[in-house]
Specification:
169 residues; mainly alpha; Protein Binding, DinI Protein, Chain A; 3-stranded parallel sheet; rod-shaped
């Protein structure tokens, strides 16, 4: 009798679970495509490009200084005393070190600036996705590029609705 009761509960649970699963609505979206279509993203990209150019200009200035000192050393060092060669050599090493430090610093600064500028864009996109999902009664929204297969007959592409929510044509 206990086994029969277990079987009945298992069947009832399976029927209930499959019925509940069948009633759930699924959606998918290509979030990358959404973000790249946002005007905010384009503005962010322009700001990042300008910032990168500033950082590169600083590095290039140091590189020019380094090349000039190195060329001078290679050209004139034969006529210099040992002491002057040592001073000039140390100067080149210091500039090279400064160049490496500036390159590392520029990478870190760019990464921070990128995160600072892209975070609000991502939040805006995620908020719009959540709003459309809640309004549409979707229980799951999958990132379409992160799954191997999407059956579009059983899952709705909400990209157009999210773009509309964001005012993107």
């Amino acid at each position: 009798m206990k086994n029969l009761l277990k079987v009945v509960f298992a069947i009832a649970f399976a029927m209930l679970a499959s019925n509940t699963f069948a009633q759930q609505k699924f959606a998918h979206i290509n979030r990358t495509e959404l973000i790249q279509s946002m005007p905010d993203f384009k503005t962010t990209q322009e700001k990042l490009e300008a910032y990168k150019n500033e950082l590169v200009a600083t590095i290039e200035e140091i590189q020019v200084e380094y090349n000039k000192k190195l060329e001078e050393f290679q050209k004139d060092s034969e006529t210099w005393s040992a002491e002057k060669k040592e001073v000039k050599s140390q100067d080149i090493v210091n500039i090279q070190r400064r160049l490496q430090e500036q390159q590392a610093s520029a990478e870190e600064l760019f990464s921070r600036k990128q995160e600072e500028l892209i975070t609000p864009v991502l939040k805006k996109a995620n908020d719009a996705i959540s709003k459309v999902a809640k309004t549409g009664g979707y229980i799951y929204v999958f990132e379409s590029t992160a799954v191997h297969y999407v059956d579009e007959t059983q899952s709705t592409n909400i990209l157009p609705a999210v773009k509309k929510e964001l005012g993107i044509n």
